[in-house]
Amino acid sequence: MKKFVFLKIGQGDFDRGFPVILKITLPHRASIPEVEIDCELPPHSQIPELYQNWLDASKKLSFTNLIENNKAQEYSRKYSQQYYNAAKQLKSNLKTWLSASTNLKFQRLRETLYNRLDASDEIFVFLQTSHEILKKLPWQEWDLLRDRFPKAEIALSPSEIESVDPEQPKTGQKNIKILSILGDSTGINLEKDRETIANLPKVNPEFLVEPDRQAFSYKLWEKEWDILFFAGHSNSNSDSGIIYLNPQEKLPIAELRNSLKKVADRGLQLAIFNSCDGLKLAEYLAELNIPQIIVMREPVPDKVAQLFLKYFLEAYSGGESLYLAVRQARSRLEAMEKETPGATWIPIIYQKSLDIPPTWEEIVQGTSPPALQEIASIRDRYYLADGFPQKTGIPLLTNAAEFMANLSENTTMRYGLKVAFSPQSNNPYFISVGSENLKVWAIGAWDTQQKISVPGVVDLWFTSVAISPDSRLLAACKQYKVIVWKLGEKEPLLTFSKTPFANFFDVLGYDGLEFSPEGQILAANDNQDIVLWNIKTGREIARLQGHSNKVTDIAFHPKDPRILASCSYDKTIKVWHTDTGRILMTLSGHLDEVYAIAFSPDGQILASGGKDNTIKLWSIDSGKFPKTLRSHSEAITCLAFNPDGRTLVSGGDDAKIIEWTIMGKQIHTLSQTHKRGVTSISFSPDGKTLISGGRDQTLKIWQRG
């Protein structure tokens, strides 16, 4: 399991200690902590001095290596020993500090991590602090992270961290586009880095060797890059950090703000600065919404930087997650510890985004799926009996019927087609309902396998349709009744009568009908109530009452059949416990009637849409909605999550079908949609096919391009 751990360190110092807020969450609901406690880092006044001793010894040794005289070897031995001793002292004192057996508040932090995390968890640790020394300490040496949790890696992050959605999410591609800037190479060898990148799988690298700033800026604007790489000299002598492009030109990275912001908005996934002292660079790039940055916190020997890049990219392109690839690469640097004590401490991730970093293959596949493309359109006039008016042979009657049909389709038709896809991939089909008939359609051939006729007198239209989780039962609402059939049979298995006149004033027809996830219960709205029936016994088992106006849609939690959500003309969404009939929460946020709801496949997000032309994404744990989605110009009438959990699709009275990321970023507006409002959408179990029905009496089949 993946876990997020946040260590938010407040104002303090090494003489008095630091207040800490510890939070542990699941990645997909990072705003809802599993645990949140106040604790502290204990005092240890020697830590800053020990850190500075290690850093000074490193700089002295680096300077000595440049000396070419008779005493160079003597100095090298002397400073190498100082470097080794300084690293050893820092490591030893850090270990003591981060065990702090006598400090109860810190022990509370350790015990919480120990008890609430598992050694098999992949743990993303976000260190949030403004203290410069704390940012640079080798937290990787913390015994809990190093020994107890072998899949943990620490990253620095800003105090406020949120999901980052690019303006232009990317669809799949054949190769990862890497822009590699090989800057000033004075005294270092950058050819090793170039060779490492050029030999990666599924890459399309471009190299700029000692460019000027104009050439660098031009390349940033030229393409939608996936990875930005820089090797050369850099330092943090400005608020944003400085890179050395060539021997004559150094560049404060802030002077390319517009270019870097553009490449971030276009979907840049990762920036790697394989250069010295890059922390300021990382902090500035994070402000521009580059989601992940890997930098060297301190001056780094050329060989260490080369090996880290090689080890990291081998692991990352080989299938490891970004965090585990960094941990693995750092661990492999231990062979360099003799000549560069602390080599494993220097590389660090800086993460701005709450999202889990993409894998190498996910970058290839893109941050968003390809657009759904229409592959078939089926026009079926459900409100006319089969063969009428053609069977009459009377031209006048035929023309009049055609005129009335077109008038209804284009102007007055209240209801549209409703659709549902079989949940089982081994039994693929979908069903549609309109006025007279329920039809079962074959996948691929897109022709009718079965037709069930249910003539109507007053209420001519089906208002909802559903398929059981095992794909063996079909259910539909019509004429104040809920009817259940076995697949392949025309005679009803069950018929549930609704309250008389419950639908009489339902002029919009957004009735709800759904099977529970284990298939034992069928739920439907009965005006202001929700009725639950046991499918095996055919008996009503519960009636949920609490809405003050007509219920328009219902949705079972995909993981827990006891949890049901409903929406209503009363502008609210309610979440129910079906065993007790208790309302667990009431979600109020829409400004008008709510027409459609849908749970994400993991059950953590509830999407709702309605007459106020907005979609809201609610955290089902907290009841708070982090996102309001606006793009439809009329009411949202139907919602469906892709079974892979990556996207949400909405349909509206504006005849638009729009696809969004799970975090609420619009990625596709489908072309060639219905002539009038969209009334129903449903995904195939593999998420590759979408069926839509509309008021234009047309079914459309969409597949990934």
Describe the structure.
The chain has 705 residues and is an alpha+beta fold. 22% of the residues lie in helices and 33% in strands. It contains 13 helices and 42 strands. It has an eleven-stranded mixed β-sheet, sandwiched between helices. A four-stranded antiparallel β-sheet has the order 15-42-41-40, with no helix packed on it. Strands 16-17-18-19 form a four-stranded antiparallel β-sheet, with no helix packed on it. Strand 32 and strand 33 form a beta hairpin. Helix 1 (47-64) packs antiparallel against helix 2 (72-97). Residues 63-69 and 382-391 have low confidence and may be disordered.
Number of E-type strands: 42
| Lateral arrangement of strands in the main beta sheet | 3-2-1-4-5-14-13-12-8-6-7
Poorly predicted spans: 63-69, 382-391
Average pLDDT, all residues: 87
Structural class: alpha+beta
Shape category? elongated
- In DSSP terms (H or I, runs of 4 or more residues), the helix count works out at 13
- Report the span from N to C terminus: 33 Å
* Alpha carbon gyration radius: 31 Å
Strand content: 25-35%
**Biggest sheet overview:** 11 strands, mixed
Q: Which characteristics define this entry?
A:
4-stranded antiparallel beta sheet; 705 residues; 11-stranded mixed beta sheet; elongated; alpha+beta; single chain
